[in-house]
Amino acid sequence: MLEEIYDQLDARLATADADLAARYPGDRPGRQPVHTVYVPADRVTADLPAAWGGLALAALDEHGLPYAPDLDGLVRAKLADEPIEDLRIDFEDGYGRRDDAQEDAHARAAAKFLAEGTTPFSGIRIKCLEADLRRRAVRTLKILLDEMGGVPAGFVVTLPKVTSVAQVEAMVALCAALESTPGELRFEIQIETPQSILGPDGTALVAPMIHASAGRCTALHYGTYDYSASCGIAAAYQAMDHPAADHAKAVMQAAAALTGVRLSDGSTNVMPVGDRTRDAWALHSRLVRRSLERGFYQGWDLHPAQLPTRFAANYAFYREGADEAVTRLDAYLNRTESGFLDEPATARALASYLRRALDCGALDPSDLPFPSTTLEAL
Q1: Which of 1, 82, 161, 348 is the least crowded, having the fewest Cβ atoms under 10 Å away?
Q2: Which GO terms describe its biological process (predicted)?
């Protein structure tokens, strides 16, 4: 009798089982960058990463440390060796509208730069797919791909101002038309319009957008200022920690959970320059830490002097919690007492936390009492 019941349940749930496996494969493996640096296409120079690292180090020397002294060695080494983890060359708001010849030239120059692979992760932000801009968006992407001769490792296209599932479906078709190898061109969706959070029928469109991407969507990036402005928030109060921002990001987080699509918080437009440097550092450090605590492990940086607080906030976040995470995970693995009743889901979260700590350089594998490969097995 039981075998008959088992077979009936398997048959009844076969479609749902397959749908769950396809739509919710779990977290994407591999390293996630801690930030994305946005640089307008007309400001890209051959020495961009080194130049940003040098400017960040100069800001530290001029204004003093905006973090605990014990982090200084780690931060300075990072700024010297890998100041930019993920670079997005911007052809949208930070770049503006140019004549075709000028944008064509910048697209070719960007392609040459990106082909060099000077950062671990990279890509471009094209203009949106609204009627008046879509031809320029497609033209820029086509020029770039042609000049590069393919899609480099770690390359992604940022699709901004998405207002409908149809635009995501159109982006899938565009990727298929432009790529040389099927499935190689990926994109991230920028969530910066209220329509992506709440569609005209009252549903949260960000979830259908993910599932309409045919597996090409790698991340959701929150756009702080476009979203805030569209919601009618006064300029002085537009910020990553505004309640409207928290609502949008909570919807994004639920929509992306277990899909393999990652999350990135937005930016602050308070730049650490001149007499405002120390106050801007304090704000940036607080916002980065806030994002980390809320499960947004990536964010935007717009100025070289934001790099010290980006990396320091990440190092502090992981180093402060490392001992407890190691103790709890070690106790879980060895079935010993830790003072916590951790279940498999929590063990996976502890492992993910430690993997991220290793990936960003906050911890070294020698800091763990078990092989780092153990983290991948959970």
Answers
A1: 1
A2: oxaloacetate metabolic process
